[in-house]
Amino acid sequence: MSLTPISHLRGEVLALYEKHGSYLGTATALFEAHPYLAKPNQLRGYVKSEITMLEPDVEIISETVRLAKGNQKLQDLQRVERKAFREHARIENAVAEYSKAIVEELERHGSSLVDCPKRTEPLNPEAAVLVVHLSDNHWNELVDLPTNRFDFEVGAKRLSLFAQKIKLLSKACGAGRVVVFFGGDLMNSDRRLDELLSMSTNRAKATILTVHLFKQFLLDLRANFTVDCFGIAGNESRAKDTLGWVDMVATDSYDFTIYSMLQILFNTTQDEGMRFHDFQANEVVFKIHNETFLGLHGHQVSATDQKKVQAIIGKYAAKGINVTHILCGHIHSTMVSDYISRNASLVGSNAYSEEALGFVSRAAQNCHIVTKQGLDGVKCDLQNVDGVEGYEIISKLAEYNAKSADKVYLEMREPQTVIQVVV
């Protein structure tokens, strides 16, 4: 801000300008009051300078406001981003700690399995190998029909009966090695209303119970065999409503969770006779003797459509893989044929299959005997478990307060009065 010859009179200049309203009028009045100043025409320029230097510069103010608003917007965005990051970081840290705690708990339980009975005899590479197909177990489903009943307790007996039949087959063929193929749908979905109503307990508790049962099943087999495990995801055990095919989506599944928990549990024992191979999203290939198996869940292929079966075999032939037999499930009905075998279910018939599909089935799982000479498929009927001592599950049922068919039956036969209306 520069000074003029009348800057010392600025107060008087402002008062005169407010009175006269013009630069020349102000200059004339100022000259009359101070004759020693320059003439009015010259004073007019000085008056204008004094007046305008006190008026705000609109452009400067506008630019200053614009910059201030931009800076405030940036601060607001940074505040929102910092808040979102803090919330995301809190969630990620919580999940990481939760996962770490689960892993530590599994490793702690796994360490207690070190002294469990294990087969130690050397394997005969020429001996038969059993392929145990576990699929469509649908743990957490509750079935109470005239033709079939299923809950955790019944399932524990059927799984134990399956292990007994596997051991019986091994004595007949001299097998010392077992390959367990987890073919998906290990746990029931609760995405639909009828599934939600017929579930036995919530999914978190059901996951722990399922791992507990499979642990006992694998330990039962390990006492007589060396065990290799493979696993894929089914369609019903997915955590989301949408069925995915890429690995990232397909493995967002309770099948993957259960398999991974078992893998951590048994890896803690450092038992070379119990091996878990990497879980695959949709399909897995493994070779035993002269047979190359393709394991998939079954919603990708119709086992009764020979052309589709040959198309899948041809897809792998183009990759240089000669698939000799396909293992699938999904339909809950046993079928054993030359190039494909379909597994049934541990559950058997349920309301959906009987009422909606008009399809009645029995609880069963497949076991295949693989030798140098070929492949024999065996259906193990698991429907009737009378007199079978199941795996330990009663205490867990009490601990997790899971429903059972017996509880539902009693509640239906002897309902409790909640409100009694007397007319």
Summarize the structure in short.
With about 425 residues, this protein is of the alpha/beta class. It is about 45% helix and about 15% strand.
Count of separate structural domains: 2
Radius of gyration: 40 Å
CATH class of the largest domain: Alpha Beta
CATH superfamily of the largest domain: Metallo-dependent phosphatases
Number of helices: 13
As residue ranges, the low-confidence spans are: 192-198, 243-250
Helix amount, in percent? 40-55%
3D architecture notes:
- By secondary structure, this protein is an alpha/beta fold.
- The protein has two domains: 7-52; 112-412, Metallo-dependent phosphatases (Purple Acid Phosphatase, chain A, domain 2).
- Helices cover 44% and strands 14% of the residues.
- The protein is built from 13 helices and 13 strands.
- It has helices spanning 10-20, 23-33, 40-52, 58-111, 152-173, 193-197, 203-222, 247-250, 254-267, 306-317, 351-356, 394-400, 405-413, and strands spanning 129-134, 143-144, 149-150, 177-182, 226-231, 274-276, 283-288, 291-296, 325-328, 335-336, 340-342, 364-370, 375-381.
- The protein has a six-stranded mixed β-sheet, with helices on one face.
- Strand 2 (143-144) and strand 3 form a beta hairpin.
- Helix 1 (10-20) crosses helix 2 (23-33) and helix 7 (203-222) packs across helix 9.
- It is rod-shaped, with a radius of gyration of 40 Å.
- The termini are far apart.
